[in-house]
Design a protein that fits this description.
The protein is of the alpha/beta class. It has nine helices and six strands. It has one domain: 3-Layer(aba) Sandwich (Rossmann fold), CATH 3.40.50.850. A six-stranded parallel β-sheet has the order 3-2-1-4-5-6, with helices on both faces. It is globular, with a radius of gyration of 15 Å. The chain starts with 10 loop residues before the first strand and ends in a 5-residue tail after the last helix.
């Protein structure tokens, strides 16, 4: 039976290709939502020392991870790649193995390309894969929708950011909850 819960002690986060030029190709509203939702998950992960792996596709051509997330990902592994499937890059694959966790929480750009291919590979490896539905995007809405549909059919969990964050937080009233909850406004 598929595990629908996220155990923060067995999870890691991947921020896939949230780079300057890829972000600029997104509609303004999508950019705003992506930044906010990625920030929520990254800050929640930081509160619990959940490993974060950052990937950048062809950094020289597409730029670095957007500056709004730079401070939050400080200290995370930030790895350049050329494969669309992150797991085909040796350094990224080693980082995933080194994390020693079986649940991958994915967010980034583009849902129907790099996020999709990475998720499919992680599922083939027997991992639980959670896609932050409102923290992934594609240039075209139909591609985003198709990517999410295919990921769901393949067995990934498709959860909104708030669902992921609240599963990681587990309980109201904690210091972590008090620190993260203002981000939901």
């Amino acid at each position: 039976m598929k595990n629908y819960f996220i155990n923060r002690d067995d999870a890691f986060v991947m921020l896939i290709d949230m780079q300057e030029k890829l972000m600029a190709a997104m509609k303004d509203k999508v950019q705003i939502d992506l930044k906010k939702n990625c920030e929520i998950i990254l800050r929640t992960a930081n509160e619990y020392s959940i490993p974060v792996i950052v990937t950048e596709q062809y950094r020289r051509g597409l730029g670095a991870t957007i500056h709004e997330l730079q401070e939050i990902i400080e200290g995370a592994e930030n790895l350049e790649k050329s494969y669309f499937d992150c797991t085909k890059d040796c350094d990224i694959n080693q980082s995933i193995e080194k994390a020693g966790r079986k649940t991958a929480i994915l967010m980034g750009i583009e849902s129907h390309i790099c996020v999709l291919q990475t998720a499919l590979s992680l599922l083939q490896k027997g991992m639980d894969v959670i896609i932050a539905s409102d923290a992934v995007a594609s240039r075209h809405k139909r591609d985003w929708e198709t990517g999410l549909r295919l990921l769901n059919e393949a067995g990934a969990g498709i959860y909104p950011t708030e669902t992921i964050a609240f599963m990681l937080l587990e309980k109201a009233g904690t210091p972590e909850f008090k620190k993260i909850s203002p981000l939901f406004k």
